[in-house]
């Protein structure tokens, strides 16, 4: 099962997502921290995306590649002067190569309080069956 998803982070800092708006060149691209665990049904991917909302999140599967892109808006109100910052300002981007064992049509996701949960179910396996053999 560990081969069902392969990280492509080495590519992500060099490219922008293929769909949607692209970030202005001055914005940093941040690698979102990810946890992946396996269940009886498939894989679950958890990503920390602080500041990302459902309106600013793009989640896409194309050609067995799962891409997560989250745009973050500045938290300080217009006209305010930033006095202290511990979060780097930028957009989140991660991508993974999925194996053919993942049921792409069954992928579901939810975003709650800046944590994205993506469920990657396994393709159902064919049940064993007896095959009738005809004779001459």
CA gyration radius, whole angstroms: 20 Å
The count of DSSP E runs of length 2 or more, i.e. the number of strands, is 9
CATH class of the domain at 29-73 and 90-121: Mainly Beta
Stated plainly, the CATH topology of the domain at 29-73 and 90-121 is called Immunoglobulin-like
- Quote the beta fraction: 35-45%
Write down the overall mean pLDDT.
Answer: 84
Largest sheet: 5 strands, mixed
Order of helices and strands: EHEEEEEEEE
Structural class: mainly beta
Describe the structure.
With 136 residues, the protein is mainly beta. The protein has a domain at 29-73 and 90-121: Immunoglobulin-like (Sandwich). Helix content is 3%, strand content 38%. It has one helix and nine strands. It has one helix at 9-12, and strands at residues 5-7, 28-30, 34-38, 42-48, 57-62, 65-70, 90-98, 108-112, 115-121. Strands 1, 2, 5, 6 and 7 form a five-stranded mixed β-sheet that branches. It has a four-stranded antiparallel β-sheet with strand order 3-4-9-8, with no helix packed on it. The N and C termini lie far apart (44 Å). It holds the Pfam family HSP20. Residues 1-29 are annotated as: Disordered. Residues 25-136 form the SHSP domain.
Short description:
Strands 1, 2, 5, 6 and 7 form a five-stranded mixed beta sheet that branches. Strands 3-4-9-8 form a four-stranded antiparallel beta sheet, with no helix packed on it. It has 136 residues and is mainly β.
């Amino acid at each position: 099962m560990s081969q069902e998803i392969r990280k492509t982070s080495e590519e992500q800092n060099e490219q922008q997502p293929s769909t949607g708006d692209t970030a202005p060149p001055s914005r940093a691209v941040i690698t979102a921290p990810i946890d992946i665990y396996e269940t009886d049904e498939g894989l679950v991917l958890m990503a920390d995306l602080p500041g990302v909302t459902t309106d600013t999140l793009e989640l896409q599967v194309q050609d067995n590649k799962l891409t997560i892109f989250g745009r973050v808006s500045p938290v300080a109100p217009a006209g305010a002067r930033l006095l202290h910052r511990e979060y780097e300002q930028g957009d989140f981007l991660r991508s993974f190569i999925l194996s053919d064992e993942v049921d792409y049509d069954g992928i579901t996701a939810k975003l709650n309080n800046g944590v994205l949960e993506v469920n990657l179910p396994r393709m159902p396996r064919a049940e064993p069956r007896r095959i009738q053999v005809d004779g001459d």
